[in-house]
Amino acid sequence: MQTLHQAFNKIVQLVSLVPGVLVESSSLAGRVATINLVLRGESSLKLLRHVSCGANVALTPQHGNGNLFREPVSFPVQVRITAGSLRRDRFRFGELQMLGVWLVWELHSLRLLSTASANRLLTVWGGAANLAPNSSLKRTNQSLRD
Asked: pLDDT band at 88, cuts 50/70/90?
């Protein structure tokens, strides 16, 4: 069985696979996970907006009170992901675990995570596993790349 720290470290690794993202620092204090990032472009911001909404985690600027969902963004931009890790529904590590599931789905669809690796992580985290091989994906991520 995976520990909270193991899951957190794996999720930080997954975030670092997102194109245009640099992980500056990460911490797990109590039951709150924080990942500080530098985003180099609009496509990485779009992907993280999508993932953060799906996982119900906060995506905010590291400095100031701006809104990354409504205001124009100048790149590079420093952002922070904040996720709770208290049990929620069937997710042992709550929103942090949901973040991991959403990252796996997106990284797999971008062909940055193999089908075997994605299914292994989804099985551990309780996400929808048995993804189709990358070569047979029907979904396009063009909207995330624009």
From this structure: confident
